[in-house]
Amino acid sequence: MSAELLDIHPRELCFTVEAKKQSSCSIQLGNKTDQHVAYKVKTTSPKKYCVRPNVGIIKPNGKSDFTVTMQVQCAAPLDLQCKDKFLIQSAVIPFGTAEEDITSDMFAKDSGKPIDERKLRVILVGLPQSPVLAPVTGITYQDPLHGILQNDKIPSGVENLAPTHKESEGLKNAKPAVAIRLNSDAGTILTDDANELAIATSTDTREVNNVEEMKLFKNEMEDDLRKEFEELKSKVDALGSKLVEAELIIAKLTEERMKTMQEKEMVKRELALMKHRLGGKTVHMGFPLLYICMVALISLSVGYLMQ
Fold first, then answer.
1. Are residues 108 and 179 in the same domain?
2. pLDDT digits over 197-255, tens only?
């Protein structure tokens, strides 16, 4: 684990979720070193968030901000649990490096340079809870049994008799208890249905998030493989061109060597021909001894006469 290069504040991205409205969050990065540091921001849901700027350079002991904007949502999510994450990569770079020169290779772990990676989680804050998921306690429901007892008559061939005073009081006392029990049962049923709906929606949302994450990782792997393939292809092309140049140089040197050998053979033949023409006679180089003696005698004579 490499040393921390950046100081990040805040450590979480908080978004207010509201239908058909964008939500933004700002993150401040502080350089904790005495060197220039480059950073890059990645997310597991690139289609859902917009990061500006997603790359940058921070001066020694300097600070830099970037803003994350969550795109417009068609409807507020029923589940505020979010598995989206952001990754901030940072690495030390030489002085004078421009933002256009920042590449993914700078943040590779096998580059030998100190690399710092931080993960930030996303927190969703919603508006007041939707009535569909709100508890149903306190909602008044109509008691169908109460209406039947008050307004309807039991159809039969016998005339309905007026109840006695004690039966009327018992029936009046039973009506509120029945109504309370029906209201409680209805509230419980609606609460269970709402909870089941919330659980099912949460499960679907998690499955969708997992699928999106898998798609994102797949796309990232495909991009990395495509880049590596292009780099290998360019290296192979460069090696091929160098090989062609080397073959041309070797052919040229071979041709020059053949010419040199032919010239050497021609010189040998000429020397052999000259020896044959001379017939084995020895050629003396320089002046003959008699000539030297005559010149010396004449010189002594002239010198003696001059004295």
1. no
2. 666 666 666 666 677 777 888 888 888 888 889 888 889 999 998 999 899 999 999 99
Distance of alpha carbon 39 from alpha carbon 106, whole angstroms: 10
What is the dihedral sign for C-alpha 249, 251, 254, 260?
negative
What separation in angstroms does the CA of 13 have from each of 68, 95, 217?
8, 31, 21
In a domain, 33, yes or no: yes
Task: Using alpha carbons, select from 258, 165, 193, 205 the residue that is nearest to residue 76.
Answer: 205
Domain membership flag for residue 184: yes
Same domain, 144 and 186: yes
At 79, which amino acid appears? D
The parent domain of residue 39 ranges over 6-126
Contacts of residue 170, defined as CB under 8 A and 6 or more positions apart, other chains included, come to none
Judge whether 303 lies within some domain.
no
How big is the chain, counted in residues?
307
CATH number at residue 115: 2.60.40.10
Closest C-alpha among 127, 118, 113, 96 to residue 30: 118
> Coil, helix or strand for 116?
strand
Ordered alpha helix ranges (H), the chain = 144-151, 165-278, 289-306
